[in-house]
Recover the amino acids of this structure.
């Protein structure tokens, strides 16, 4: 039982490049989330998926797209990376949306030059 | 405007003493609160939660207190251990709403 896994662990991009961050959970959770963490800012929600087949914007969605591929997998795509997207990205899942403990992956550290 | 505030970016405590981490919120609709602990290079892990129908919840060395009228909650760790050194995030949700709002975190250092 791996919980929430994320790939890659670390990535360096040049401005304008694209990439997809992958996330998978094996806890049969309905809801999945993508956050970014910046110094002094805590975790800010980028996008979430309340259930398979649905996605919604969070607090800071600009510059990102997501895909809920199936119940297990939720990917985050940067179409044209910018230095402002340098951050640590965390994926999380929960049994359902709202008022439920979320379980986090180990994070992806992204550096955009 | 931050809805969840942790006004102390860092805190240092001697091993064996009490650690008190504070969190304030502005949204009166929040009714479920969690504390997460985060070690470097790892994701946050759930520590303890409290619902607004309670004013205290204990789990071993960890106790969370909620003062709804003051919109304030605190996490007490007794006794503090060096392994407690981490960043602690407070998070709040309205249970029928959508998602959690996280505070900026407090870095706790427990000195041996």
């Amino acid at each position: 039982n791996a919980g929430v896994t994320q790939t890659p662990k670390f990535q360096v991009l040049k401005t304008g490049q694209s990439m997809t961050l992958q996330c998978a959970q094996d806890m049969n959770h309905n809801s999945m989330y993508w956050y970014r963490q910046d110094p002094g800012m805590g975790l800010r929600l980028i996008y979430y998926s309340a259930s398979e087949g649905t996605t919604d914007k969070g607090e800071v969605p600009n510059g990102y797209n997501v895909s809920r591929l199936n119940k297990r997998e939720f990917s985050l795509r940067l179409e044209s990376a910018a230095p402002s997207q340098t951050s640590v990205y965390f994926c999380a899942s929960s049994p359902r949306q709202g008022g439920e403990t979320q379980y986090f992956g180990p994070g992806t550290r992204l550096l955009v030059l | 405007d931050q809805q969840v505030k942790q006004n102390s970016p860092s805190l240092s405590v001697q091993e064996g003493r009490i650690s008190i981490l504070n969190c304030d919120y502005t949204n009166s609709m929040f009714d479920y609160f969690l504390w997460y602990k985060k070690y470097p290079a790892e994701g946050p892990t759930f520590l303890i939660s409290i619902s607004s129908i309670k004013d205290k919840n204990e789990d071993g060395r960890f106790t969370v207190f909620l003062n709804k009228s003051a919109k304030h909650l605190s996490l007490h760790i007794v006794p503090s251990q060096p392994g407690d050194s981490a960043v602690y995030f407070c998070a709040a949700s309205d249970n029928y709403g959508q998602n959690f709002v996280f505070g900026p975190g407090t870095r706790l250092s427990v000195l041996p």
